């Protein structure tokens, strides 16, 4: 049997729960707007660059001709990967930046943290990203953005509820 002092120490310190210095910190379990901005922009750029590099690799492989030397083949693959990776990465980074800014703005405006903020931020991000292409494209992109974010948030909540971590 464990001594009494050990049991009280376990109640004070639980290694499976985060510790907070102030009570207000424990109530708001979210990243700050600056951390959100950095996180979504970085994740968007990294994911976009990786996907773009993979697509560029495929297009570089398709552009290889039979008369190419090994150095030229490698050059085609690297150029395709680098060029497409940069393009897609920058686009996804900008989308992440706009989403984080809109979500933080929604949270500050509504003073609530719920799924509506995320979905409206997805709608706004899609619409803003395609605004220069015309109102119809902006509406379609906004709808797609809202649906994607809604599915992602619902999936995250389902994982939290049904998958033990």
From TrEMBL:
BP-aspect Gene Ontology terms: protein import into mitochondrial matrix
Chain ranges passing through the membrane: 138-155
Family annotation (Pfam families): Tim17 (PF02466)
Keywords: Membrane, Transmembrane, Transmembrane helix
Location relative to the cell: Membrane
InterPro entries per UniProt: Tim23-like
UniProt membrane topology term: Multi-pass membrane protein
A single GO molecular function term of this UniProt record: protein transmembrane transporter activity
UniProt GO cellular component terms: TIM23 mitochondrial import inner membrane translocase complex
Domain of life: Eukaryota
Coiled coil: none
PANTHER family per record: SD19278P, TIM23
Stated name of the protein: Uncharacterized protein
Organism: Dorcoceras hygrometricum
Lineage: Eukaryota, Viridiplantae, Streptophyta, Embryophyta, Tracheophyta
């Amino acid at each position: 049997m464990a001594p009494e002092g050990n049991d009280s120490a376990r109640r004070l310190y639980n290694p499976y729960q985060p510790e907070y210095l102030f009570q207000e910190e424990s109530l708001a379990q979210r990243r700050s707007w600056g951390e959100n901005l950095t996180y979504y922009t970085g994740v968007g750029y990294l994911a976009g660059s990786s996907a773009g590099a993979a697509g560029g690799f495929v297009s570089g492989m398709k552009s290889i001709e039979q008369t190419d030397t090994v150095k030229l083949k490698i050059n085609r693959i690297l150029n395709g990967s680098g060029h497409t990776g940069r393009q897609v990465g920058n686009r996804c980074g900008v989308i992440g930046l706009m989403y984080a800014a809109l979500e933080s703005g929604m949270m500050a405006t509504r003073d609530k943290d719920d799924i509506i903020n995320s979905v409206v931020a997805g709608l706004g991000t899609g619409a803003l990203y395609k605004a220069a292409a015309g109102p119809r494209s902006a509406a379609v992109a906004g709808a797609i953005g809202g649906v994607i974010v809604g599915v992602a948030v619902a999936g995250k909540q389902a994982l939290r509820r049904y998958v033990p971590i």
